[in-house]
Amino acid sequence: MRVFKSLPPDALHNIRQQLDAAERPQASALEAAAQLINTHSDYQEALKSGLVQRVTGGDLVEFIERMRNRLQVDASRRTTDKQAKKTQLRADQVEETSDEWLSEQLTDFMRGSAAWKNHGLALVGLGELVAEAGGNFEGWLLQQRNNPVVARDTHGRAATFANRLHLEAEAA
Amino acid sequence: MAESVLRRLATDDEFVKRRLTVLDRWIDSGEIEPWLAVVLAEWCRTSEGRKKAPLSTQGFEDLFLNEETFAVMREQVDGPWMIYFEQCRSLRANEAVMGFLTQLESLSAQP
Question: ipTM of this predicted complex?
């Protein structure tokens, strides 16, 4: 959760303004930003370096803003449903709707982006947004384990299997 | 044991055969998804795999980005092939861009 907590409140707005005024490379802004997060242990340092402003693009900003808006709507609806119990929707049905939407968003997002392990920025931001909206990000992520699109760190899993593969094959 | 989804080649030596046997066992027990087993089987045939070295990020990406290997993997079993292909391609492109950016940063820091 460190990434967006460390962002000044108007950082996204500032980044967008700077991007509007500057040329940026023809590359996935999100990937570049995620890569930066991997190479800078502290997002504030990355911000200060000036690189984030140069390479963080509208894709990321718009995605995060879209997520925030949608999650706020979902959270508001969930709260209303739970408190007033005026609708026939069960809470878990509402959760399911929200999760489906999240899953769809993340799927689209991942398809256009780099591997899961390089999405520290997006994941952390997403986790924070879900938490803000009253959702259970860890629980949702756990449910998505079997979704190949959101399988966490596939290379890491493959590497673990690869190590075991050598050991078991040699022991046989 | 169900019929293996992993291809066998006449050129497979004992090293590869042993690993295919282990992978088949994992598939049958549900321990590993068949498509991921296919990836590892093909990796065992690469120079990196044969060195018994850890599966590197580059090694993983190379499997998807090599046109011939990718086609061979897809033929063996259904899986999220295109998703991981796109991800590997993005990663590789990203590395190139970051290299340019780093160079640019170094140049801009010079008087």
Answer: 0.86
